[in-house]
Amino acid sequence: MSNPSSTSTPAPPARPRLTWIDTVKGLAILLVVLYHAVELAGAKGWAGDQLTLLTDALITVRMPLFFAMSGYFLLRRVDRPWSWWMRNRIGPFLWLFVLWTVVWLLTFEVIPWQRGDDGISDILLLIVDPSLGPWYIYALAIYFVAVKLMRPLPVGLQFIIGSTVSLPVACGVVHVDSWVWESLLTHFIAFQIGALGSQLLARIATGATVPRMLIVGAAWGAATGGLFLAGLGLDNLLRIPVTALGMTMGVLVAAVLDRYAGWLRLWWFGRNTLPIYLLHVPIIGLIYSLDLGLPSTALVAIGVPLATTVLAVAGSLAVWRLLRPIPGVFTAPWTGEGANTRTATVSAADGATDGAAVSAADTAGHAGAATTERPIPDRGTRR
User: Fold this and answer.
1) Deepest in the core among 84, 150, 214, 252, taking most CB within 10 A?
2) pLDDT in tens, 87-144
3) Distance, CA of 182 to CA of 198 (rounded, Å)
């Protein structure tokens, strides 16, 4: 006769992870690092027009996708009480934002950088001027609050509100005298698409084929190229369809790569975006503070930003491996649920994979910051 106390109900099987989402985030964070590597290389004469034009064009791809994937799983937990959200999502994001803003400002007190008059004393301004630090994490905290507040409203009305907030700023109809608040307002609609339109994104990924990817990619390239050649840029209403094409292209590319080129392990970068986001900016600053005496040649203009991107990603992950055992560095110092807090159920080995990444599945948003599209405070440049 068996002892009832010795038996237990088997745990339900774990839900399979959607690796295409991680691949999207992996592509996005690599594009963010490349963007900053190219931008700062240009300040030293180490970047050419080709890479600069490419990274400028990808504005309709990298951050919209990053924010969409950060909101992808939000509805699974949106109805939990505010106390849960403060402990496990909003609070951890604000903790990391404040902590790493201090780290960045201290770093740039030492490392030469094109940062104007910003200094550690500006920490008092970070709530109204999040450009001083990893603004992407700050944006997530705001977006989570906004989506939860609008939860009782019909989905259509939520999208109308989000479009009203984002699209006039994104299209240059309404001008905001702060690049970071311009970015925060611009990308809210992308976060909403991830949170409220996740089924649509999933259908796009499920139906991804190589021909479909090439067709959408060609359409995005033609539309973007046409706007740039016509001198219109993206500060107009045509940014809306171009961004829709860019986001669709990004999902299709990620799904195809995930299906046929998993050996690239882009999904791994997507699961570890947070350390890359938080650390790549100081590492690029360190690299570009070196007086290498490089000539302004085509090889340097292409090679330096690409090599810096590789070094910044590798360096970020190396530093993360050293610092991740320290509580409160890549997570909140308090215990909670998921990858955003220090939790007794996540071991150091687990954290190496997902814990510090605040992955899409766990964040119902993460960072990884970085990416961040422009954490570098250049107030005169549009995103």
Assistant:
1) 252
2) 999 999 999 999 999 888 888 877 765 555 555 666 667 777 888 889 999 999 999 9
3) 25
